[in-house]
Amino acid sequence: MAKPAKKKVAPGDVATNRTAGHRYELLDRLECGMVLLGTEVKALRDGSAQLKDSYARVENGELWLHNAHIPPYGPAARDNHEPERPRKLLANRREIQRLVEKQHEKGLTIVPTRLYFKGPHAKCEIALARGKDRFDKRQALKEKDSQREMQRAVRDAERY
């Protein structure tokens, strides 16, 4: 039996960080461009990237993406890129300053939620996030299960 395809949030997504929604309470989202090498773009077009343990940080007034895994592109054997190198995110200076202020003010972190292509350009959606407590995670799972049960009951009632 074949493996099921990876779940993606939107049709144009290359990678999504589904654990971010479980670990963090996502407050504010921002779309950023990315500075990539040619082999990284080709590897992204193949649809193979991981954002699981990645994070974004502001360094010297610039926004950087760390620990995002973009695997080497197969046909470019010799001139490949490092899979987990830091990548610069392109955002407006005022947006970066606003992120820095909120981050220091409330003790928040910046987490990438998805990678996708918008036209010919690779984009990264980042979110300002607050870490969830263990209780909050359990509460979210209970709510998700109750929603699923209600949908199942409605579907069964419509069936008969």
UniProtKB/TrEMBL annotation:
Gene Ontology molecular function: any one: RNA binding
InterPro entries: SmpB, SsrA-bd_prot, SsrA-bd_prot_CS
Keywords from the named record: Cytoplasm, RNA-binding
SUPFAM superfamilies assigned: Small protein B (SmpB) (SSF74982)
Annotated stretches, region: Disordered: 135-160
A biological process term (GO) from this entry: trans-translation-dependent protein tagging
PROSITE patterns, sorted: SSRP
CDD domains: SmpB
One cellular-component annotation, GO: cytosol
PANTHER family associated with the record: SSRA-BINDING PROTEIN, TMRNA-BINDING COMPONENT OF TRANS-TRANSLATION TAGGING COMPLEX
Alphabetical list of NCBIfam families matching this protein: PRK05422.1, smpB
Descriptive protein name: Unannotated protein
Organism, scientific name: freshwater metagenome
Record lineage: unclassified sequences, metagenomes, ecological metagenomes
